[in-house]
Amino acid sequence: MIMAKLQRFGRIRQLHTIISQETIKPSSPTPPHLKTHNLSLLDRFVGHIHMPIVFFYPNYDHGDTHILKKSLSQSLTQYYPFAGRFPAPHAPHINCNDEGVVFLEASNNGRLDEFIRKKEHDETMDRLIPNGLGCTMHKTSPNLIEVQLNHFAGGGAALAVSISHKLADALTMASFFNHWATVTRGGSPINPSFVSSSVTNNEILGFPLIDTEKLNYVRRRFVFPNSKLYELKNKVNAMGTSPMNPSRVELLTSLLFKCAVDSATRKSGSLMPSNLFHTVNMRNRNIKKFPETAAGNLSTTVIAKIATDSGEIKLHEVIGTLRKGIMELEELSNVEEVIGNLLSKLSPLEGEQSRAYISSSMCRFPFYEMDFGWGKPVDIMFRIPEVNDSCVLLMDAQSGDGIEALVRLQEEEMDIFRKDKDLLAYVEDM
User: Fold this and answer.
1) Keywords on this record (predicted)?
2) Which of 161, 194, 227 is the endpoint of a domain?
3) Is residue 3 part of a domain?
4) Active-site residue 121, yes or no?
5) I want to staple 42 with a disulfide (CB 3.0 to 4.6 A). Which of 37, 161, 297, 371 is the partner?
């Protein structure tokens, strides 16, 4: 087994080579009145981690690299904080000094079709990410964005981007990619409006980051077709308990949470108190209306504390608790109230012996629409950093039929999870 791992590691190193590196700066200098960008209160609640994403394009033309870099430079004039730097690790603002974005090119002797649709995410995928930024807590960089264009043997490419979560949530990432892609195709993109705060102190430090790299976590993809999600919805509605007609995201988030907790329970022999931390987009809610072009972190976290008195996790109870937390957000009128609500939910958990499960949905976010002139991506890979406990990321399936879930659990728990009958009843053939 050890020899096989060594051989595999050696093969990975031989296959992937960085062939160039340069810094892409904004095509026009950032004006003096925009040289300092104060983080919003929601930005400050986010840890200093990078979020990597990889787009796979089978029809990439090697001659387009210059155009790709030029359009990135043009987009950075509008996304000017992305080309800046934090003056200190916990500074509440960014110096928009046009230092630029690192752009790497790499050659990979593997074929593109060896990477797409992979159920398991392993170290071969991490090689595609610029400097492995965002893969572990120990991979850090002063650069707020790094880009890596990976050329495959036989054609095609993977465009990987790792963006600091401190200044962008998933929808801001999607807006940036769409802006860049539109400029690359010669179109006229919609420019962003960055949300900031007039408060310049740093009283809010956000969630603590936990290094889980040594806990032997694994990541696996699952696809849930719409027909199966419809079956699940009918089953829940037939229970006659509230809430009726849950959304696909509420259904699947709750199902995956239940199955994950059940797996941990089977492994340990006892049911540990468990909390679901679910990210919710605050755009278009009752709080201060943000423009459609708002950029930054405009999300908060709903904490669903699940009662375990009965000795088991019940699906309809998870759905109800999650829905209640989301509905409470409708009563909030400004960002300060959003922060206060979150702090009030976090405070009782301090010192509590419980398991945390993190979930986030990117369904309906236009990641599969990112056309740089080579057609739309045939696959997308998100990389969950090794900085939290068990995690779930949801996004639309590439086919348009259903939802794809990227699940990260401890290895022994994943072995149990993937065999759970409640999961297998609704997942696409594994």
Assistant:
1) Acyltransferase, Transferase
2) 194
3) no
4) no
5) 297
